[in-house]
Structure formats: structure tokens, C-alpha cells
Amino acid sequence: MNADSIRNTASTAGASQASPADADGAASADGAADADAVADHDPDQVDGVANGHGDSSVAGALGIGVIAREIGLTKDTLRVWERRYGFPQPLRAHGGERVYPAEQIERLKIVKRLLDGGHRPGKIMRLPLEALQQLAGSATPRAGVLPDDVLDALVDLLAAGQVGEVRKALAQRLLAFGLGRFVLETAAPLSTRVGDAWASGKIQVYQEHLFSEVLQHLLRGAMNLMPDARQDADARPRVLLTTVPGEQHGLGLLMAEAMLMLSGASCIALGTQTPLLEICAAAQAQRADVVALSYSEVMGMQDVWTGLGELRDRLPTGTHIWVGGSSAALARRTLSGIEHVPALGRVDEAVIGWRKRQVAAS
Length: 362
Prior knowledge:
This protein is an alpha/beta fold. About 50% of the residues lie in helices and about 10% in strands. The chain has helices spanning about 5-10, 25-30, 65-70, 75-85, 100-115, 120-125, 130-135, 150-160, 165-175, 180-200, 205-225, 250-260, 275-285, 300-315, 330, 345-360; strands spanning about 60-65, 90, 100, 240, 265-270, 290-295, 320-325, 340. The strands form 2 sheets. A 5-stranded parallel beta sheet has the order 5-4-6-7-8, with helices on both faces. The chain has a 3-stranded antiparallel beta sheet with strand order 1-3-2. α10 packs antiparallel against α11 (about 205-225), α10 (about 180-200) runs antiparallel to α12 and α11 (about 205-225) packs parallel to α12 (about 250-260). The longest helix has 22 residues, at about 180-200. It is globular and about 65 Å long.
């Protein structure tokens, strides 16, 4: 499938509607956690409430934990906004947990997208849904997202439910480009576009999940064809890849692993959400030279900084920590003993730098 056929297929497909975002809320920028907030349970969907509203008022309502995971707004952020701005206004399920009806979920998704674009909570939180939609519709693309009609057409195909066409087009691009170029020029920028489409409501959550599965399958297939550097005792650095608890987005981590393998590094992938103590144990057992962590915008800034500080304290000084991903916390503050790799295209540079330092120290 060439570029023209992708555009033509997308132009004839109908578009789907609805869905969440992927990024950090504003608790760190606009207020601390609500100190007197009660612990909420985490129901996926709620059938009734205890505050006098009938069942019909909570049709499609989601619990606070689901909102936090899927939209990328922490529980503390939601509670702070509730207290400070009077929005959101959750209902209460029979067990007392906060639940959010469909209209508020839609507003939260748009608010999240606008916050990611640089708007301040105090300026937009009290705006009605129509005003938020208008503001979001006039928003410019996020910095770093370059125009690409083919990638935009793939998002249109995904929104139209034509996952098979997306899979075919991506497979052809992988064969044509090779793994490294595919990651940098297709996988990474397309993932950003899909996240933006998810945030704006153009695609639904399940469609974003389908896309992730397709892309992971293609990347793993290509990576499995490469020589396994773990079998080579001289392959350095040995890089342990994972995410911390609460960070469930692993697609960026997989792309980083692909770029590390192309640089000749030996990769040990733990998957996502590994507890800090287990990361330390694995780094020691696997004789890791580097622990590489990926952070999306879902993680709160203070959580990122605190977790990295604790991990740095627990790991031996000779074990390097590399961090990357879309979290603004990584660029906002420089942490001692932490190396920020700001883009996938800089992975090879980080590997070369590590090797040079090893030679200089020997």
C-alpha cells in the first residue's frame, strides 16, 4: 500500500468518535494533593448512587481510578479541581466512591488535551463543554509534530475501524524503511498522532489499544530477527528496560529497546510497572550497566522526581540511569546521576557516550 492509496482509502472511510487522553494533570503545577480526600474504590462502571440520583443519571459513569488510568489525570488532581474549581462534580456510588457521568468525562478529556497544549486550569476549568470544544478545535498541533499526510491518513483509517489496512500499511513501511528508520519516522510520530486523536475524541480507547497491539507485534517481529546481544558477553552496555509502578505505557519502551539493539546494546526487558526494589534486584542479578526507564505524561511530576531520586539512592553509583519519554518532568528538572535521553534518535548517542566513558575510565 503506497502513500496515495493510504490517503485514498482514508478519504473514503467514515470516522468514529469518542475517547481519552494520555498525559499528566496539573496537580503539581496548580495545587498539592487534597489532604483530606478519602480513599476511593475503583469500579469500572457503576449501576447506582447513594446521593439521591437514579440509575439513569450514572449510565456510563466511571470510577475515579478508571478516570486516572485512562485519561491520565491523577486522583489527587481530580480532588483538587473538585475543591478549587467546583469541577468535576462526581456522584457517589453505593459504597461512597466517586463516579463521573459521561458528560463530565467528556469535559475532562478536553480539559486534559488543553492542559497538554499549555492552557492553565484556572482559565478553562469553569468553561462549559461547548466552549471547551471550540477552544480545543482551534488548538494548534503540539510542538514537534511535523506535517505528514500519510500518517494522518493512517489515523483516519484507524478511526474508521480499518485496522487491517493500518496493519498492512505499517508492515509495508517497516519492510521499506528498515527498523531504525521505521521507529523514528513512522512508529514514534504516528503514536503521538494516535494519542492526540484519542485525546480529542476522534478515536475510542479500544481503537488506541488495537493500534498499540498492531505496532508492538510488528516491532517485536522485526526485533526477533536481530542477533541476540545477550548471548555475547562482550556486548555492552547491558541495559535493563522497564517502567515504574503506575506507568503502564510500554510502547515507547519497546521503541527504545529497538533503537538500543540497533546500537549493539544488550537489552533485558522487564515489561512495565516493576517495583523499585525489584528493579534494583534485577539490575544486580543481570549485571546491568544501565537502567532505562520510560515515562509518559500520565505520571505526576513530583512522582517522577521522587521515584527517580529513590532509585538513584538504591542503585550502585556504577549503574547508570537513563530516562526518556513524553513526561514534561524529565525536561523540567535535572537530577543528579540521571541522564535524560530526550528523543529516540539520541539513543545511539547515549550508547556511544557510555562506551567512551568506559574506555576513558579503564
